[in-house]
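step=encode ok
step=design start
structure_in=
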């Protein structure tokens, strides 16, 4: 049994990841503020391998970190809008706390740290072709800029005794015990169900790489158990499909009938196509879900079926 500490583990990705970890026979300590309570873990609350620890990642103590085999850092303000509302808070949590957690992990003898980064670091790369891990980041938001800086700091901390990997997640979708509806696929599915209308902003030609939340969980588990020489000091793009925003709307409407409405607002500067060949080649990562799968399961949950 591998002992995992998941910082920020009570969120959208974290609750799905913890479910998968427990199902695979691992131990999971969730460190989170639990601002919305612990209900998202009701389905695994009786599992003796699950431990819920309340706290703020900015002040996490070494005693919480010590004794784990793998630390997964999912903590932080998790969207452009949230990050922009309070830049000082974003710097403290998304940068300062992430570096501090990594330092504590290294000091307490944790052998592996996985950092949750984002394909948002490619930001305004629409005209530059398909982006790989070696492409220059072009972040357009504070959220993405903090991700780039943390990646650079953590890469320098890697050593033969401390394996560090940054997973740049595509835009995540799909059903999770702790749902979010602010990401594009989930938001469009919700609007199609409730309003019978999908709004496409910024022209709809912006590219979005996508990945199911359970495929993200699978990627973290795969990297956590990979040979260090394959993942140490590495950045890995994690995703499955890439569509334009207009194409995503069409896919959602094919499952949940709705009118697609194009709004004449300013173009969205975020647009990027991303290659996932590196993680597929190095670790044989194979996504299990498609956007259609995600829309169908969210729709079924909204209908209560």
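sequence_out=
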């Amino acid at each position: 049994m591998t002992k995992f500490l998941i910082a920020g583990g009570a969120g959208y990705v974290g609750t799905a990841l913890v479910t998968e970890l427990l199902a695979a026979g691992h131990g999971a300590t969730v460190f989170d503020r639990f601002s919305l309570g612990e209900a998202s873990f009701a389905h695994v609350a009786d599992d003796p391998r699950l431990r819920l620890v309340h706290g703020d990642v900015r002040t996490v103590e070494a005693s919480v970190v010590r004794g784990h085999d793998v630390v997964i850092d999912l903590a932080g303000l998790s969207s452009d809008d949230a990050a922009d509302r309070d830049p000082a808070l974003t710097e403290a949590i998304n940068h300062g706390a992430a570096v501090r957690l990594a330092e504590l992990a290294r000091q307490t003898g944790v052998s592996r740290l996985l950092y949750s980064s984002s394909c948002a670091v490619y930001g305004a790369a629409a005209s530059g072709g398909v982006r790989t891990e070696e492409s220059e980041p072009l972040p357009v938001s504070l959220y993405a800029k903090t991700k780039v800086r943390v990646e650079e700091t953590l890469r320098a901390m890697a050593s033969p005794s401390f394996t560090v990997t940054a997973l740049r997640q595509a835009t995540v979708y799909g059903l999770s015990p702790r749902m979010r509806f602010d990401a594009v696929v989930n938001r469009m599915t919700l609007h199609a169900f409730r309003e019978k209308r999908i709004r496409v902003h910024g022209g709809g030609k912006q590219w979005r790489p996508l990945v199911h939340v359970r495929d993200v969980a699978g990627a973290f588990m795969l990297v956590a158990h990979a040979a260090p020489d394959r993942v140490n000091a590495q950045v890995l793009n994690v995703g499955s499909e890439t569509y334009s925003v207009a194409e995503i709307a069409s896919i959602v409407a094919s499952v949940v009938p709705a009118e697609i409405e194009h709004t004449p607002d300013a173009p969205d500067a975020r647009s990027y196509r991303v290659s996932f060949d590196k993680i597929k080649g190095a670790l044989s990562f194979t996504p299990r879900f498609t956007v259609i799968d995600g829309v169908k399961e969210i729709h079924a949950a909204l209908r209560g079926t």
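step=design ok
step=annotate ok -> The longest strand covers residues 112-118.
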